[in-house]
Amino acid sequence: MATPHFSDKSLKFLRGLKRNNDREWFEPRKPIYEAELKAPMLSVIDAINQAMLDFAPENVHPPQKCMMRIYRDVRFSADKSPYKSRVSAWWARAGLEKTSGGGFYFSLSTTDVTIAAGVYMPEREQLLAIRRYLVDHHQELRALLAGKKLRAKLQEFEGLRLTRPPKGFNPDDPAMDLLLCRQWGIAATLPVETATSPALVKEIVARFRLAAPVVALLNRPLLGKPKQPLF
Questions:
Q1: Less crowded by CB within 10 Å, the N or C end of the chain?
Q2: Mean of the pLDDT values across residues 148-166?
Q3: Which range marks the domain in which residue 171 is found?
């Protein structure tokens, strides 16, 4: 069975959409989008799901739930372009689907393939919970991020760092460099040609596998404590 990946037609459609981001162009070409981008994306997600059962089963969801919509939310944006110029997928942690917990991300644009994992836009309460957790567990996170295999394939997020220590935390805390962050994770940018290669799924899965312990650590403070048995 052939390993799912994208085609030159997939990239051609994305380039056309980037130049003509309007409904007049997209609507008559929607069947092309469905065939050349949506269908292969769902197949890629399904193949990744099968591999993730071995190392991140709590992040596996039906492909339709992982794939992100091509339509942009323009309600609060100055840019009123109705469509995204990339196709993407997000593997949320079970129980955190409606929040911004740690997960895995893949996207294809006209210029590159992006593979990432971590906590990207945590809610206020989640941000505080992760910071409090890192006060006691920063060395564990540092050890994971310093792994040679991980560093060979992924780079740490810049983290949208604050310029001052967050309120309520000791400025001299040894975890402060991590506490200043507003996001935590790792990412890789690969050439766009990766998307049309039969090795696409292999490249994504290899990085997701390396990132899984980081994602699991960041999700620990966000998950409710298991209920104690009554007896």
A1: C
A2: 95
A3: 8-222
Read off the tokens for 203: 């490249």
Q: Are 18 and 110 in contact (CB under 8 A)?
A: yes
Q: Supply the CATH number for residue 145's domain.
A: 3.30.930.20
Residue 231 domain flag: no
Domain-located, residue 194 = yes
**C-beta of residue 141 within 8 angstroms of C-beta of residue 202:** no
* pLDDT digit string, tens, across residues 10-26: 999 999 999 999 999 99
Token digits of residue 205: 């899965």
Burial of 118 (0-12, 13-18, 19+ CB in 10 A): buried
Count the alpha carbons within 13 Å of 128 in the hemisphere toward its beta carbon: 4
Evaluate whether residue 227 is within a structural domain: no
Task: Give CA–CA dist 120/107, Å, rounded.
Answer: 15
| pLDDT at position 146 over 90 | yes
For residue 228, name the pLDDT band (cuts at 50, 70, 90).
Answer: very low
